[in-house]
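Sanity check

After download, print the first record. It should look like this:
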Amino acid sequence: MDQRSRVPERSPEKIKLPEGIEAYNELDETLHFLEGKDYVRKSVEKHQPVFWELLNNTTDSSSVAVKTNKGTFRIRLHKNLAPYAVSNLLNLIEKNIINKK
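Expected structure tokens:
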């Protein structure tokens, strides 16, 4: 049994876009690799741009504290796993949009 036959043929198409673009790209890139094909990452026009200058100052061990009326919790910033989500959160913090709510 080859590696490709272990993964359902239509798996990438089941991922909801644009929210799942990072998961889609990782899965589709892996499927292309297993087939020995070149891969071009898919982008979504409606998606927020990645704010690279914010990500460059962040590591996968970075976190942010969120204070609520029920207490404080921390969010770990996995920039390599979810660059769009992390850069969007950092951008909202930098613009002080989150602190206003």
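If your output differs, re-run the checksum step. Summary of this record's structure: The longest helix spans residues 21-35.
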